TrEMBL record:
InterPro entries: AGP_acyltrans, Plipid/glycerol_acylTrfase. Pathway: Phospholipid metabolism; CDP-diacylglycerol biosynthesis; CDP-diacylglycerol from sn-glycerol 3-phosphate: step 2/3. This is 1-acyl-sn-glycerol-3-phosphate acyltransferase. It comes from Carassius auratus. The chain crosses the membrane at residues 84-102. Converts 1-acyl-sn-glycerol-3-phosphate (lysophosphatidic acid or LPA) into 1,2-diacyl-sn-glycerol-3-phosphate (phosphatidic acid or PA) by incorporating an acyl moiety at the sn-2 position of the glycerol backbone. The HXXXXD motif is essential for acyltransferase activity and may constitute the binding site for the phosphate moiety of the glycerol-3-phosphate. It holds the Pfam family Acyltransferase.
Amino acid sequence: MDYLSDCYWTRSGLKCLFASCRVIRFVVRHVKYFLGLRFQVSGWEHLQTDGPYVIISNHQSSLDVLGMMEILPDRCTMIAKKELVWAGTVGMVCWLGGIVFINRQKTRDAKNVMSDAAKTMLADQIRLWVFPEGTRNQNGGLLPFKKGAFHLAIQAQVPIIPIVFSSYSNFYLRKEKEFKSGTITLKVLPKIETKGLTADDVTTLSEKSFSVMHSAFMEISSQTTQSNGPVFPLSAPTTRMARDHVVGNHANQAL
Ligand SMILES: CCCCCCCCCCCCCCC(=O)SCCNC(=O)CCNC(=O)[C@H](O)C(C)(C)COP(=O)(O)OP(=O)(O)OC[C@H]1O[C@@H](n2cnc3c(N)ncnc32)[C@H](O)[C@@H]1OP(=O)(O)O
Ligand SMILES: CCCCCCCC/C=C\CCCCCCCC(=O)OC[C@@H](O)COP(=O)(O)O
């Protein structure tokens, strides 16, 4: 019955196929084995929070989806750009997962959708994951945060849980098309309460969130970089044996 009641349109129109999110989580969690990625998660205890909340995280690449699925809490879906719905299988899976699509080119529409989402979060006890940078970014830091996630949390009066993914630059360079296996550290930070805050507090809340996430990003990225080796072109073999062979060749050349 619980499964069925999750599986139809709610009164606000947000699709709530959260059972599907569990299926998506289960399936996507296996992709890391094919890519040779490992995840180290710290701060699990901060996700042990009852009721709705807003998760915010940095956004470097589509690979983030793998990390999301490592820790995705139950009854949690995401805010995504509307273009994703047309992205074939991915779009269909996003739609089934109840993802909330926004039009980034039309701020007023996006704000309305997010205000509706704030109401639905409370009515249906849903958690929402937002990427406050608003776009993918691999510049070695965090982009200035957009305000939507903070308005959302304040409107719903729910806590924000910041999550930081360590830099991928030690194993994946998108522009240079270079990739190898490696470890990604995910750090869940203590929740930030929004009870009693109003729209006037959005900027302060956003700056506070940025500050704690930026510090955590720098900390875990330097630690994780030290434990990963050099990055290889995407055309290079990525299995451990093949990699050792390549490393061996490079070492020989160096000699
Ligand atoms: C086969 C296997 C398949 C597996 C599939 C697995 C599925 C997983 C899918 C994962 C999906 C991941 C998708 C990731 C993305 O798509 S990221 C891109 C989309 N997300 C976002 O953009 C979120 C962040 N953006 C925002 O929150 C923005 O604020 C936005 C609402 C979009 C508005 O943007 P913009 O106008 O550019 O910027 P500002 O933030 O500066 O806002 C302008 C002013 O409006 C005020 N504002 C903003 N939001 C609100 C609001 N909700 N209510 C009231 N007012 C709002 C804001 O304060 C600014 O005004 P002031 O300057 O403060 O006066
Ligand atoms: C060699 C590495 C290749 C990467 C392989 C990734 C494997 C991930 C496996 C399955 C998940 C696929 C889901 C893709 C979801 C894409 C979400 C996404 O990243 O959307 C972009 C959007 O946020 C911002 O767009 P822009 O940066 O503004 O345009």
